[in-house]
Amino acid sequence: MNIESGTMMRLGDSGQMLADRDQDIRGRKVLDRDGHELGKVDDLLIDTEHRKVRLVRVEHGGLFGIGATPLFIPVEAVERVTDEEVGIDRSRVQVAGAPHYDPDLVDKDEYFNELYGYYGYAPYGAPGYVPPSRGFFR
């Protein structure tokens, strides 16, 4: 089952707020499993049908936001959250190897399915999907 087009939206563009304000991790540093900084949480992608956070959008590189590249990380990879940081269970090398998203070149459904597969998760709504059992976005 594919992730349907139009069901994923940036929280910042949705006009919605998270029911639990503590889950709003935008602006926090993202660290890989070895403690290396990957960037900052720029936004959260929500499934508008089920009103759940599905992906963390991380901006990395660039200077003052110019030239920064977005990375998308499934919330299933979020291992820990503090007031200042978000830790994921992958290395920076694994994150760097994830499929890159270019909205002008890539089909959204295909990209998100490929991304979930790269990280070893079934896409939400697909057979075999397991909601996050640990961490922050259960």
The percent of residues in helical segments reads 10-25%
Query: Can you summarize the main beta sheet?
Result: 7 strands, mixed
List low-pLDDT spans. 1-6
* Head-to-tail CA distance between termini: 22 Å
Highest-level CATH class: Alpha Beta
H/E element sequence? EHEEEEEEHH
Beta content comes to 25-35%
Task: Give the helix tally.
Answer: 3
Compute the number of structural domains: 1
User: CATH H level: which superfamily?
Assistant: Photosynthetic Reaction Center, subunit H, domain 2
Number of strands: 7
Classify the oligomer. Answer: single chain
The computed structural class is alpha+beta
Overall mean pLDDT stands at: 80
The general outline is globular
CATH architectural category: Alpha-Beta Complex
Radius of gyration: 14 Å
Question: What is the secondary structure topology, with strand pairs?
Answer:
Blueprint: E1 8-10, H1 11-14, E2 29-31, E3 37-47, E4 52-60, E5 69-74, E6 78-81, E7 85-88, H2 92-96, H3 108-119
Parallel strand pairs: 2-7
Antiparallel strand pairs: 1-3, 2-3, 3-4, 4-5, 6-7
InterPro entries: Bac_photo_RC_H_C, PRC-brl_dom, PRC_barrel-like_sf
Pfam family, one: PRC
Domain PRC-barrel: 21-81
Summarize the structure.
Pfam families: PRC. With 138 residues, the protein is of the alpha+beta class.
Your description of this structure?
This protein is of the alpha+beta class and 138 residues long. It has helices spanning 11-14, 92-96, 108-119; strands spanning 8-10, 29-31, 37-47, 52-60, 69-74, 78-81, 85-88. It has one domain (8-119): Alpha-Beta Complex (Photosynthetic Reaction Center, Chain H, domain 2). It is built from three helices and seven strands; from the N terminus they run βαββββββαα. Strands 1, 2, 3, 4, 5, 6 and 7 form a seven-stranded mixed beta sheet that branches. The longest helix has 12 residues, at 108-119. Mean pLDDT is 80; it is low at 1-6.
